[in-house]
Amino acid sequence: MPNAIDFTFSDLIAGYVISYDEAGRTIELNTSDGRPFRILITDTTTAELVRNLGDGYLDATAQLAKMLAHGRLVHVYGIFYPEDGGTAFEAKHLLMFGKEPDEFRFESPGWWVDQIGKIADFYLDEEFGPGATAFDYRGYRTDLSMEGAKAATARQETDTISRLVYGLATAYIMTGRERYLQAANAGAQYMVDHLCSIDRSQQIAYWYHALVINPDGTERKIFASEFGDDFDAIPCYEQIYALAGITQVYRITGDPKLREIIDLTVNLFQHYFRDDERRGYYSHIDPVTFDPHSPSLDDGTRTNRDRKNWNSIGDHIPAYLINLYLCTNEQRYADELADLCNLITEHFQDYDSSPFVQEKFHGDWSPDRAYGQQLDRAIVGHNLKIAWNLARVNNLRPNADWVAFARRIADVMPGVGMDRQRGGWYDMVERHTGPGERFHRLVWHDRKAWWQQEQGILAYQILNAVFDNPFYAKYARESSAFYNGWMLDTTAGGVYFNVLANGNPFMLGGERSKGSHSMAMYHSAELCYLSAVYQNLETEEQPLELYFRPKPGAFGGTLRVAPDLLPPKAVRIQQVWVDGHEHADFDADTMTVNLPHSTEPQAVRVRLAASTVAFSADTVRIGDGSATIRIAGSLTPPRLGIFKEAVEGALDHGCRRVELDAAALVYLDAEATRYLAWLKQERDFELRVTGAAGQPERELRDSELDQELVR
């Protein structure tokens, strides 16, 4: 007989407000997939606005009745009471995502930039000391507790250092803060000096699995992997992720020493992991012979002989290949990206059997459904990761088959891998349902890992930015809401490894950590960066600034600053500064900057904007108590948030004088002028408007703001 739910339990409901009865204190709510819930607000119900890392608590309890407007996305945590005739649900906590129903704080300018800075500060402070400006990686440790404390072990794992270096380098690209670049450079150099082996006779480089610092200060190298299914082998994915950090640093600096190591490691893939006859890359090689067919790889308990998998094929794309192509424009990398996408499209689809891809294979590409702990199981995040990486490479080399595969994943996955009751994405599930089963069974429990949330957010953000589909936009927003609402540790800092389905942190074993074999800063930083590119820059048309520090002679004097593999002419350079001075020698459409001759590294700041941008508000100068903001395009009510962010950001910076350069402004809505009048009253600052003409000039005069109008 079926189990009866006749006990109380707490849980989370994520959905959209249909109506709110203030007298009866009830909310009618529909989940993402349209299932209705009736929710009771009690005297002890509290509400808050979603907050970023570093933000204080933002109470919304007093404004709750006004905020529960039709269509608002809200997360409600409460208690189910099974009672006669149904199950009551009483809310204990509501999480709101903006002050207005159509406002989402995580889509505002600066959200992802601020977040990556706070994550970088967390890791640097915990690894090297609060506010550290010197970074000796002999003190680095792989394992960090949930609070950030370093474990007693003296272990340093190559991939984890590389993931941290990637994150720090990306934080510099997004913020320009010197601390992050110094730490990334130090980490990259430490990796090359202590964890990389170069075989000049074969012209290859390979990476140790880990390093242990002995009590006497000597080092003990660990070559073969010591983890799970990879034990005593050299897994391809570890060599791949060893490149993630130094490639991102190379993208910033063009350091030829790093490029040499990158090229030698790519040679390792080509010479020893690549299957020239059947195509693709083997998942493992023997640590002594480098033979993917060695009997030592198959000892009866581990089955790594003659195997291929998602990690050995697909992980090349995001970990280093796209970034290497972006900064070099070398067509061999574009060819490799296309070849990998073809392999994924040809071999990973298995929709006659399962809604999930097949991601484990024998060397001949026949499915391997008996491998290790995965067996015939699916990792939800890998399905999603395939979608957004196919979409990225399609922007470089258009291919209808890749697009069809990516869109099929996007269409199928919400129904089998997404939690449409609570939001977020699950981990590992059975690829097939059993007799009488409606849901694909969860392998471990209903936990949700931080990196799988990244995959869900980016899959739908990127597909929406490229294909402009309202369903993709919806799932991108819902995925981002869960991540920013529940994965950020706003108390201790950083990002939780796992939360349960209801958003509560999972705090057992190795998952009670912020640093481990699996976790450093890679996925959280990649999410911040690509969300800023695809959501803010391309979809919201908000300008984005990127920072580089090329060494003398780097990249042959041509710095390529395209933020990603975007659709042709979707984004262009708006403005460039070199060593603090405006620089005019650039090609806006190809997004290349011709660097002036220098014998020292040059600080390059680039402002990018969507080619079809409707409105932009760019702070071009700030300091000495004043700021100049260049506004362009049409300032309509939907774009008012961009304007507010720029003006209030200047005031929050301490500026008492704000000049608006309106020479490129073509339309000014009355709501914007009312906002300026109100803000001047509230904040008491000096406002000057220069260059206004046509309709904006008339609107300013009609609004009685003509005293601020300067021609």
UniProtKB/TrEMBL annotation:
Database matches in PROSITE patterns: STAS
GO molecular function, one term: isomerase activity
Coiled-coil spans in chain: none
Every STAS domain range: 616-711
InterPro entries the UniProt entry points to: 6-hairpin_glycosidase_sf (IPR008928), 6hp_glycosidase-like_sf (IPR012341), AGE/CE (IPR010819), STAS_dom (IPR002645), STAS_dom_sf (IPR036513)
Keyword list, A-Z: Isomerase
GO biological process: one example: carbohydrate metabolic process
Record field: transmembrane: none
Superkingdom: Bacteria
Pfam families linked: GlcNAc_2-epim
Similarity section: Belongs to the N-acylglucosamine 2-epimerase family.
Protein name listed in UniProt: STAS domain-containing protein
